[in-house]
Amino acid sequence: MTIASAHRTLGAADRRSSGVPVDPHCALLREVASGTEVDEARALYEDAYNGHDLSIEPLDADFSFRLATTGDAELRLRSNSVHGAMAGIAAVPDDYVVTWLTRGAAIIDPASDAIDLLPGRPIVLARDRPIRFRSHDHRQNLMHFDASYLERIAAEAYDVSAAPLRFDCSRSPSPAALQRWSAVVAESTRHVAQPGTPTLLRAAAKRALAVALLETFSRAAADPARAESSTVSSPRLRRAIDFIRANAHRPITPTDIADAAGLTVRGVQSAFQTRLQSSPLRYLREVRLDQARIDLSAGDRDTCTVAMIARRWGFDHLGRFAGYYADRFGEHPSSTLRRTARAS
Questions:
Q1: Which residues of 24-151 form beta strands (DSSP E)?
Q2: Which of 21-30, 136-145, 322-331 has the lowest mean pLDDT?
Q3: d(CA 88, CA 110)
Q4: Were 41 and a residue from 65, 151, 176, 201 both cysteine, which residue would form a disulfide, CB within 3.0 to 4.6 Å?
Q5: Which residues face 116 on adjacent strands?
Q6: pLDDT grade, residue 91 (50/70/90)?
Q7: What CA–CA distances, in Å, run from 111 to 105, 108, 115, 129, 258?
Q8: DSSP for 162-215?
Q9: Residues near 269 by beta carbon (within 8 Å), at least 6 away in sequence
Q10: CA–CA distance, 316 with 318 (Å, rounded to integer)
């Protein structure tokens, strides 16, 4: 079920829906459903989460609920709050879902291997079976990763075949892993949720969140069957390079590059490492840095900024962008822009 269909069920609940096309290939969905009626809340959550046996009890006269969704077909961010007690069964077979509380209390599978949801502690919900839960005056954040998208990212990151992923839903991340996760979430979610984010920057933010989830929870391992000879013909490497140069303005992935070259991801990575002592993503980054330098060199001093150019080419963190730029060109991007301004 989609959140949009849940909105049509809500009746008198407050509903707002808008599609903001950031890019022809990736429309940004923004949905909000909220209200103060128990029946409306039950209809919403049964539809949005394939729920059943759902009970909702107000804690007082001020019962309220709110479910907000933003994102696209590959990753949706949700914020959910219920000022009441809830219990029931939910299922999320089409997505990989990671969630954490920001207020209140909740427990998953209370009758068997109970898992307490704690504020700030993310867990990955099981996909292979319905989930029984209880919650009390809770507010939670959720990330819904499309299954095929996350499995593709895992295949690229870990050299495994694209296949269903296994997560340890009961494992609590280490403090160091939790800190890394929180840092990526803080830096990247704003680019997924913000209308007008450049296409490359949105794609990089989604990938960063996907990799952070895999690094924090996944049990994926390298698949020896995917190993490929490092003896790759120059024509295939040339196809990969030509594809990168022609598509650097788009959110391309190692899988896209490998497909264009007629190789596996492992094969194209091996080819770049053997012949160029680089990797496909590093080569892509260098091409984008070259394009950023062209834009900075042609920039108008009244309208162009380093941040604008960096975001255009998919660089979110200005400090890292400046470091990459200085390593490649021997000067900071602001120096290039100032020189352009003086020349004009």
A1: 26-35, 52-58, 65-71, 75-90, 95-108, 115-117, 123-124, 131-146
A2: 21-30
A3: 11
A4: 65
A5: 107
A6: confident
A7: 16, 9, 10, 15, 47
A8: S----B-TTPPPPHHHHHHHHHHHHHHHHHHHSTT--HHHHHHHHHHHHHHHHH
A9: 254, 279, 280
A10: 6
